[in-house]
Design a protein that fits this description.
CATH topology of chain A: Rossmann fold
Mean pLDDT of chain A: 90
Strand content of chain A: 25-35%
Domain ABC transporter (chain A): 7-256
Number of domains of chain A: 1
Largest interface: A-B, 38 and 39 residues
Mean pLDDT of chain B: 88
CATH superfamily of chain A: P-loop containing nucleotide triphosphate hydrolases
Strand order of the largest sheet of chain A: 6-7-8-3-9-10
Helix content of chain A: 25-40%
Oligomer: heterodimer
Order of helices and strands of chain B: EEEHEEEHEHHHHHEHEHEEHHH
Number of strands of chain B: 11
Shape of chain A: globular
Distance between the termini of chain A: 56 Å
CATH architecture of chain A: 3-Layer(aba) Sandwich
CATH class of chain A: Alpha Beta
Strand order of the largest sheet of chain B: 7-8-9-3-10-11
Number of helices of chain A: 11
Structural class of chain B: alpha/beta
Number of helices of chain B: 12
GO molecular function (chain A): ATP binding; ATP hydrolysis activity
Number of strands of chain A: 10
Strand content of chain B: 15-25%
Membrane topology (chain A): Peripheral membrane protein
Protein name (chain A): Dipeptide transport system ATP-binding protein
GO biological process, one term (chain A): transmembrane transport
Radius of gyration of chain B: 20 Å
Structural class of chain A: alpha/beta
Order of helices and strands of chain A: EEEHEEHHEHHHEHEHEEHHH
Distance between the termini of chain B: 33 Å
Largest sheet of chain A: 6 strands, mixed
């Protein structure tokens, strides 16, 4: 699989400008500062960082919601710069996204079948019968039932809605799937189901993931490579084992130290410290 | 005598589809100087139990308990007027969304002062002095400058510190924290948890942590109650719970943690439900 690079990002910048008003000068904020990385086909890159570190801005640029200020993005050989070229249907089919909150990302007035068919309707010339067949197949693939086709989002639980959002994202068989905190809003047991589903889909369809998360235990479970961002810059980038076993940057070390430890040895240590203090 | 003692608490909500049992006969006890964690998924009734204790549930809820006492004071027969003397002073609570819990129209200094004016004899300059002391105690940088700041001018972690300052303003005997760190970053979560535990240790108050995060439980609790669908699954001290979980649901929860993943797939709660029958 090595050498088969599907996403190539070089020296990417994003600057947000605020307009000058009578009381305030114009200010600019650089949300992403010169980020470069590669993702290989069928693998998962995890992007980790705290709120405000630019990880969601990065996701917005990869999914063509926002244009980059400078730098290059290449998805499977196709250069992407929507400020210059606009978006073509071909570009849309290559990258899809799953958002954090499954309660906000589905239209409450749209039936599940229509949710799943819409990407096909907008981006392909497929006839209605085929779209319906594909949608029904997809429902089964993500662990839902054919009878869910005609139902509305409010009839589903959070975990089921996230399955629908994932199904919608892979309807177009994208080369790259960006997952923006897809399990943060879910309960632990549901989170496990969704993570299993993502792994199964990756094995089955050869999907490539950019997985954005602040939860290191999830990242460790799912990722092949890890990129840690801090104030718009990449401070650590390497394979999962490199980053987890030998973190180099101070911020990464701080992040690991802050993550709650749920193993018995750590609890023993904490209780012993507490007994000493008392 | 326990600080808080609740026996056989039942809470029912009237819904359009008939009564819904949110809590079905659960016991809680907390001693002074103890940290009790209540863990469960959404819908397990963990928040409802504490809201019932505080008398914060809407009229559609029917609360019944064999015993519901705080320091020997019967909370069930308490009039609204007497309840207000206890709540906010001897029992106080911190909620999940720090920014939503503060009033956006008033400065944080004013809001902190309100609590003191309602429950103590402090007036005028003494209020301000005490507020600044509190802001200092919860580690807010530059209390003098922050005194006149509005909630939107501060970060989520800082707002949560203000909420904590408000909760401890009258040196409560019992502090209930309902998912206090769920909306925060890992590094900030660590700071807030450390702060809560340190305040608890210094003042010897009882602390109830409501959470769905096993990591938070492992880092803070002395004793743990695991709830599922309105019933208590297991109650144990923190070490035995993680070392030798007895109930199948607890086992399921612990093995669904991504960091405990052994094979390729995460076990989910439904895997255990079939085998364990809960």
């Amino acid at each position: 699989m090595s050498g088969d690079t599907i996403l190539k990002v070089r020296d990417l910048y994003r600057v947000y400008e605020t307009k000058a008003t009578m009381f305030r000068k114009a200010k600019s904020l650089t949300a992403v500062k010169g980020v470069s990385f590669d993702v290989e086909r069928g693998t998962t890159l995890a992007v980790v960082g705290e709120s405000g570190c630019g990880k969601s801005t990065l996701a917005r640029m990869l999914t063509m919601i926002d244009a980059q200020s400078s730098g290059s993005i290449e998805v499977d050989g196709l250069p992407i710069n929507i400020a210059k070229t606009g978006i073509s249907k071909e570009m849309r089919q290559r990258v899809q996204i799953v958002f954090q909150n499954p309660y906000g990302s589905l239209n409450p007035r749209q039936k599940i079948g229509d949710v799943l068919e819409e990407p096909l309707l907008l981006n392909t010339d497929m006839p209605a019968v085929e779209r319906r067949d594909l949608a029904l197949q997809m429902l089964q693939k993500v662990g839902l039932q054919p009878e869910h086709y005609g139902r509305y989002p409010h009839m589903f639980s959070g975990g089921q809605r996230q399955r629908i959002a994932i199904a919608r994202a892979i309807m177009l068989k994208p080369k790259l799937l960006v997952l923006d905190e897809p399990v943060s809003a879910l309960d632990l047991s549901v989170q496990a189901q969704i993570l299993n589903l993502l792994k199964d889909l990756q094995d089955e369809m050869g999907l490539t993931y950019v997985f954005i998360s602040h939860d290191l235990s999830v990242v460790r479970y799912l990722s092949d490579k890890v990129m840690v961002m801090y104030f718009g810059e990449v401070v650590e980038y390497g394979t999962r084992d490199e980053v987890f076993n030998a973190p180099q940057h101070d911020y990464t070390k701080k992040l690991f130290a802050a993550t709650p430890q749920a193993d018995v040895a750590s609890i023993r240590k904490r209780l012993a410290l507490k007994a000493d203090a008392a | 005598m326990s600080l808080l003692e609740i026996r056989n608490l039942k809470v029912e909500f009237d819904t359009a589809k008939g009564p819904f049992k949110a809590l079905d006969g659960v016991d809680y006890t907390v001693d002074a100087g103890e940290v009790l964690a209540i863990v469960g998924e959404s819908g397990s009734g963990k928040s409802v139990a504490m809201l019932a204790t505080m008398g914060l549930l809407p009229d559609s809820a029917t609360i019944a308990a064999d015993k519901m006492e705080f320091e020997g004071l019967d909370l069930q027969t308490l009039s609204a007027r007497d309840r207000r003397r206890v709540i906010g002073k001897d029992i106080s609570m911190i909620f999940q969304e720090p920014i939503a819990s503060l009033n956006p129209c008033f400065t944080v200094g004013f809001q902190l002062g309100e609590t003191l004016k309602a429950h103590t004899d402090l007036r005028g300059k003494k209020v301000k002095t005490r507020v600044l002391e509190l802001m200092h105690a919860v580690g807010l940088p530059d209390p003098e400058g922050r005194f006149n700041a509005f909630p939107h001018q501060m970060s989520g972690g800082q707002c949560q510190r203000v909420m904590i300052a408000m909760a401890i303003a009258c040196s409560p005997k019992l502090l209930i924290a309902d998912e206090p760190t769920t909306a925060l970053d890992v590094t900030i979560q660590k700071q807030i948890l450390d702060l809560l535990v340190q305040l608890q240790r210094d003042s010897g108050m009882g602390l109830i942590m409501i959470t769905h995060d096993m990591g938070v439980v492992a880092e803070t609790a002395d004793r743990v109650i695991v709830q599922y669908k309105g019933r208590k699954m297991e109650e144990a001290d923190v070490l035995s719970l993680f070392e030798r979980p007895q109930n199948p649901y607890t086992k399921a929860l612990l093995s669904a943690l991504p960091e405990n993943a052994t094979g390729d797939r995460l076990p989910t709660v439904s895997d255990f439900a079939e085998a364990g029958g809960f």
